[in-house]
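A quick aside before the break. I want you to see a complete sequence-to-structure record at least once, exactly as it would be stored in a machine-readable document. Don't worry about memorizing anything.
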Amino acid sequence: MGEKKVAVYTLGCKVNQYESASIAALFRERGYKTVAFEDRADVYIINTCTVTHLGDRKSRQMIRRAARRNPGALIAVTGCYAQTSPEEILKIPGVDLLVGTRNRARLVDLIETAVKGVGPLNAVTEFEAEDEFEEIPVLPVQGRVRAYLKIQEGCSNFCTYCIVPYARGPVRSRRAENVINTARALVAAGYKEIVLTGIQTGLYGKDMDGEPALAGLLRRLSGISGLLRLRLSSIEPKDITPGLVEALAESRVFCRHLHVPLQSGDDRVLESMGRRYTAREYARLVEVLRANLPGMGLTTDVMVGFPGETGKNFENTCRFIEKTSFSGLHVFKFSPRRGTPAAGFEAQVDPGTKEERSRRLIRLGEVLSRQFAAEHLGMELEVLAEQPFGKDGHMYEGRTGNYLRVIFPADGDLRGETVRVKAEKLKGNLLLGRIIKSDVE
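That is the input. The structure line, written in tokens, reads:
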């Protein structure tokens, strides 16, 4: 028998993407070849999402697709949907192994003990109070420009609509030395930018005596020689402390961009969601951030159609978003999650109204994104070149520190280089320009 092949399909968030890359690396270390999910493989891994009912449905679709592609392949299902609803997945023909969001480091061993056709091996286990952060000691392969580095697991918010605390368990932080050593290894491997990711990243270190909080970790990471850029993938408003703002402002490498979930701009809806801040408190936080991080890009998550959201509540959200001038919106429609309080709330919003509100906010987000990009026309921007753009081979694309996407003519392979680009035109929310100088110090 030749080299065994494994294919991994990922649904959901950046944390899932990081974990899938780590899982693929585990298999490569054990002699497997990673192939595209569309290819015929000996092992299929589906890393599931359960944030919405659409995530559940797409997860089931991909499991069935893998079973059709190679009926003789071993199929393993992992991730949040597997953790919260194992009984639903066990009913799907073709599943051989079920692993939730714990014990992923053992996935190769569990696959190699599973036997096709015997019946699914259910390795989903409940969280325990003494659980620690699960280390997967391999470096994900992600293209030598931007790497995601998971530093934290679990959530303590228990928002009334959210299944994540049940799918991910209590807050667990990665040991600071392991984070630093992994970051150094990523830089040594050629990565220019590191994005710190987690489920509730802002609570990093709160569960471990003697470990630094997020501000202290950022200061240590900022001192790594050769690291060009550092980002946070997302952070909750209540987790942004004065000490953290100070650390971000001081850092020579931290990018002037934050993703801070809002969810609603209406106080009554925020209270019903269990979000623990008011619209005014959020607005004050934005003022503090912009005063300390000039030119900052600010993106956010917004949910529409939460139970009881009236037309007036929605209009309050729209006005708040316009006034705040976000640089980008991620818009979600409320999806009842079994086991969460909001699933049983009265005054559920009908699907048509949810869809209408979603489309309106998406359009508003496009306008705000374009406005933010337009403010940079005529400026010289420092851009990290990421990959070729288009098919002719003469254009490249990259991101600025405040997360603007920039397209520019270039010959040769510029991947991972920093270039200074004069922004000259706007196409949608994309900036088009030309290189003024390469290898910016």
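Two observations worth writing down. The first helix runs from residue 14 to 29. The first strand starts at residue 5 and ends at 10. We'll return to this after the break.
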